[in-house]
Design a protein that fits this description.
mainly beta; Porin; 8-stranded antiparallel β-barrel; 1 helix; about 60% strand
């Protein structure tokens, strides 16, 4: 059953890219991004937890205002009353840019992800293999022209909801990161 899910997942993603491949915008630019997010939580007076997330992603222009890509989130957690642990979430995403007249991007993102990170009802973290998530986010890219015309700072916020959606527990992430646009001078999104 897991193999079948994976095959359907890959075929759907490749079919989507092939459909977009028929337009003049497909592959005109790409983006490589990275960020590190640190969250220090004081849940109770006696319990302190921290979480560090490293996000790496790559995307390809698939339409005039659309990008599609892959991401990998690696998380390290520790707490005063919990053992340290490492978790991973990976998936595919699509982005829609609302701006079309500047090099800045204001975009919405939707994603499908899989991983082993799970937040329990008591807000503790645990391993739960083969956990699927639906992710949504809003993001803004601003150019850093003094360093490089292709380098951008990203400010964004995401929510990852585990599937099936049967509880009010979800994973949120804020991002202050860097994006580098490949072939940006030839991109039709200026």
């Amino acid at each position: 059953m897991k193999i079948l899910k994976f095959i359907v997942y890959v075929v759907f993603f490749q079919s989507s890219l092939l459909c977009f491949g028929q337009n003049k915008y497909f592959g005109s630019s790409g983006i490589i991004g990275t960020s590190v997010t640190y969250i220090h939580n004081y849940e109770k007076i006696i319990e302190h937890t921290s979480e560090t997330t490293w996000n790496v992603n790559i995307a390809l222009n698939v339409g005039e205002k659309m990008y599609a890509g892959m991401q990998l989130l690696t998380m390290y957690t520790k707490g005063s009353n919990r053992p340290s642990a490492n978790y991973t979430i990976y998936g595919v995403f699509g982005q829609y840019n609302f701006l079309n007249i500047t090099r800045r991007r204001l975009y919405a993102e939707g994603s499908i992800n899989r991983g082993n990170f799970y937040i329990n009802k008591d807000h503790s973290f645990s391993y739960k293999y083969d956990t699927w998530y639906v992710g949504t986010g809003i993001c803004y890219d601003h150019p850093i022209k003094k360093i490089s015309p292709n380098l951008f700072v990203e400010l964004s916020g995401y929510v990852y909801v585990p599937l099936p959606i049967n509880q009010d527990i979800y994973y949120t992430q804020y991002i202050i990161g860097l994006n580098y646009r490949l072939n940006s001078k030839n991109s039709l999104v200026k």
